Amino acid sequence: MATLPKLPRNPTHVPRQSGFCWNVSTISEALNLSRDTVRKRLREAGVEPDGRVGNSPVFNLARAIPPLFGHPPRSPKER
User: Fold this and answer.
1) What is d(CA 64, CA 29) in angstroms, rounded to the nearest whole number?
2) Which of 63, 42, 50, 55 shows the shortest CA–CA distance to 10?
3) Domain segments of the chain as ranges
4) Which of 11, 15, 28, 58 has the most CB atoms less than 10 A away?
């Protein structure tokens, strides 16, 4: 009987039900902005983290990206 390979013990491999949640480093790398800029703009817009993966706060992209470019943050969708 064949066994499936184990995934690394990395919490980012856990599927999330809330959509795309990225940490500040991943957002900054994807958008070619510095981490300090991303952190500062999210703080100024009052965007709170949507959760944590390990020690790192993660942000839902639909709410985090608009304030980075001067737009008001979107409210979460009701399900």
Assistant:
1) 14
2) 55
3) 19-68
4) 58
